[in-house]
Amino acid sequence: MTSEPFNRLRRHTLQRLATLGALALTASGRAAEAPVSPSTAAQAQAWPEWSVFRDQFVSDGGRVIDLGSERSQTFSEGQGYALFFALVADDRAGFEKVLRWTEDNLCDGDLSAKLPAWLWGHRDDDSWGVIDSNSASDADLWIAYALGEAGRLWSERRFLALSKLISARILREETLDLPGLGPTLLPAAKGFVESEGRWRLNPSYMPMQVMRWFAAQEPLSRWPKLAESSRKIIVGSAPKGFAPDWIVYDAKAGFLPDSEGPDKGRGAYNAIRVYLWAGMLHAQASDRTALLQALAPMAAYVRDNGQPPESIDILTGRSTAPGPSSFSAAVLPFLESSEDTASLQLQQTRLQARPIPAQAYYGQALGLFGLGWLQGRYRFGKDGHLQPRWKLQ
């Protein structure tokens, strides 16, 4: 598979969803598959917004459904996010269902032997199944991370073993040694080598708390160097403080705007996660100061304009329309960590005035991450370990 169809389809779907808006976790708009059973009182108390998200987007079998897509699609990214949310909520039953569906349908029944296919749904021949078998490294990171932390927090050795196997497969299949960067995470197993000496990368696929977690788990492996290259990519790809959706890395010229891709060197629906991940870093995390300083111009943009941009030129800072309300949810941790209290309060007010539409899967996921963190539902330790509220009580 080439990178262009992969990127275009994924970007198009995310844009259709995220432009819908911000956190209105209501129970309308069911998918064709039956929703899961209502959460128990204990789970609802642990994180009621997760219970609503689960009832809205997760089928009874454990499939996270993109309600706004024509093909009723499922992304491996969504499965990884759901595993993380279920762990934060101490919802082991929900975790097991999502994991089982992921393994059975995206991995040919064996998550230990194959990276998940990134796209599943209604196919052209009217059947249901994998639409694109290529992987997505961000999803694979979140799945392996959620499994590893579930194994630790729930004392489940099976999850720990699966996490290690996926980690090893990520290193084998989704990384390359790039000149000047060293071991580097590619967006997928196939399709992102642009030409001789050029690669296409995605900074939002590299949450540093997750990268550092892998490095802490396997300090003698390539993970520590992979974490270092990830930080270099996030900082180097945002020379004016605005993260791109995609960046080209040239062995001789360094980082170049992806002017040939569909996003034309801009930061939008992928890039918003760069600020989200950076904002949630532990106060003593080794990468926090460098990332907050490098991305400070986005905090200034939000302060001066009253909202994040939907899309912004990473070199000129010229933006298009205001971003959807889900973008406001995504930057809440970033603004909190940047100690911009006025902007933080304004974005919370914007969310109250323009709630995220109930059927916007991607927007709702951003809302769970951002608002869940702001509410103290979870934190990350300085080495990336998950600290859910239920474990600290």
Topology (SSEs and partners):
Layout: H1 3-18, H2 41-46, H3 48-57, E1 74-75, H4 76-88, H5 92-106, E2 119-122, E3 128-132, H6 137-153, H7 157-173, E4 175-178, E5 182-185, E6 193-195, E7 198-201, H8 208-217, H9 223-236, E8 247-250, E9 254-257, E10 266-267, H10 272-279, H11 288-294, H12 296-305, E11 312-313, H13 325-337, H14 341-353, H15 361-374, E12 378-380, E13 386-388, H16 389-392
Antiparallel strand pairs: 1-2, 2-3, 4-5, 6-7, 7-8, 8-9, 10-11, 12-13
Helix pairs in contact: 3-15, 4-5, 4-6, 6-7, 8-9, 10-13, 13-14, 13-15
What does this protein look like?
The longest helix is centred in the middle third of the chain and has 17 residues, at 137-153. 55% of the residues are buried. The chain has a four-stranded antiparallel sheet with strand order 6-7-8-9, with no helix packed on it. The chain has one domain: Glycosyltransferase (Alpha/alpha barrel), CATH 1.50.10. The chain is an alpha+beta fold and 393 residues long. The protein contains 16 helices and 13 strands. It has helices at 3-18, 41-46, 48-57, 76-88, 92-106, 137-153, 157-173, 208-217, 223-236, 272-279, 288-294, 296-305, 325-337, 341-353, 361-374, 389-392; strands at residues 74-75, 119-122, 128-132, 175-178, 182-185, 193-195, 198-201, 247-250, 254-257, 266-267, 312-313, 378-380, 386-388.
